[in-house]
Amino acid sequence: MATDFPDYLNVDYSDGEGEDPADYPSINHKLEKAIEVTKEGLEQYESPVVMWTGGKDSTLTLYFVKEVADRFDFEVPPVVFIDHYQHFDELMDYVDHWADEWDLDVIWARNEDVGEYVDENGLDPGDDIPIDGLSEHNQHHVRDILEYEEDTFPFLLDTYVGNHLLKTVALNDAIEEHDVDGILSGIRWDEQESRADETFFSPRHDPDIYPPHDRVQPILQFAEPDVWEAFWNFVVPDTVEEYPDDGYVPQGQDDLPEGVEKRDVPVSPKYFAGFRSLGSEVSTDKSAEEPAWLQDMENTTERAGRAQDKEDLMERLRDLGYM
After folding, report:
1. pLDDT band at 303 (very low <50, low <70, confident <90, very high)
2. pLDDT tens by residue, 74-93
3. If we measure between CA atoms, which residue out of 162, 183, 211, 177 comes closest to residue 317?
4. Is the pLDDT of residue 321 over 70?
5. What is the distance, to the nearest Å, from the Cα of residue 273 to the centroid of all Cα atoms in its chain?
6. pLDDT tens digits for range 308-319
7. What is the spatial distance between Cα 222 and Cα 189, in angstroms, rounded to a whole number?
8. CA distances from residue 145 to 17, 192, 263, 285 in whole angstroms, order as listed
């Protein structure tokens, strides 16, 4: 990271303040804003990365990055994938496949200290990990930053300690190792209360908490149905040569245009199977039997299938550097 960060930037950290998806009334308004923010992000930051989880939101963000890079002659930045060791196998296959198809430079962010302890001791999700069995770096995070006083914590992603070590510490270590100054991420205002006040350019400058950097957030203005509208009308047709140019919305798990299979489209197979959130294999269930984009998004919660959905927890994790 440049030593004069963030002095070389000229971004408006208040852009999006007080707004919500209704301020962008049509899909075209949302697309135009996403392109604008993405272009500024690629222009302004010297060492940007794209946060990619393999989920719909981060894949939509990656789509905008690829489109803007192609249109305005930018390099596609590396993508950061946080491997927290509890992903669905289908998700990992999806990520490997599309990373290869799109020729992505993937930075695999892992808390290898925790991963090695789990492997060496043959632990399963939910088993306890002793704090004193971890590195000084991880012990510092648990004791001094989280102020966690227990002797052990469960090897689970959807807990305060587990989430922080497996996601946030892994991410912050990658930011520091690769001198990242800007992260293009796919969070949305409507996802959670803790994200409703985010802005398109969000500073993370406190060196006592995380390596100083900014979050660039091009799809804040998309609600969940908008994401799927963008997928079936833009992302998929622009990616799959055999897909109808004017878009086509599948009406079932196997309802794709002739000659197109699930593996051909950049949509995780878990969404076809009824999952609306892809948190972890251990703690995430399908929301319904029909594909995610056909479910009742107005009257149901997107993260209802996830164990971790506590707003106070999400707010604390955000303050520590979680997405």
Report:
1. low
2. 999 999 999 999 999 999 99
3. 162
4. no
5. 20
6. 445 455 566 666
7. 8
8. 29, 24, 42, 31
DSSP 141-196: IIIIIS---SSEEES-TTSHHHHIIIIIIHHHHHHHHTT--EEE----TTT-GGGT
Is residue 146 exposed (0-12), middle (13-18) or buried (19+ Cβ within 10 Å)?
Answer: middle
Cα-based torsion angle of the residue sequence 126, 191, 291, 280 in order, rounded to the nearest 10 degrees = -20
pTM beyond 0.90: the answer is yes
Number of continuous H segments (helices) and E segments (strands) in the chain: 11, 8
As given in the structure block, the two tokens for residue 220 are: 């804040």
Class of domain 1-323: alpha beta
Q: Residue 51 in 3-state DSSP?
A: strand
Peptide linkage before 6 cis (omega within 30 of 0): yes
For residue 284, the tally of other CB atoms under 10 A from its CB is: 22
- Tokens in use for 136? 């000084």
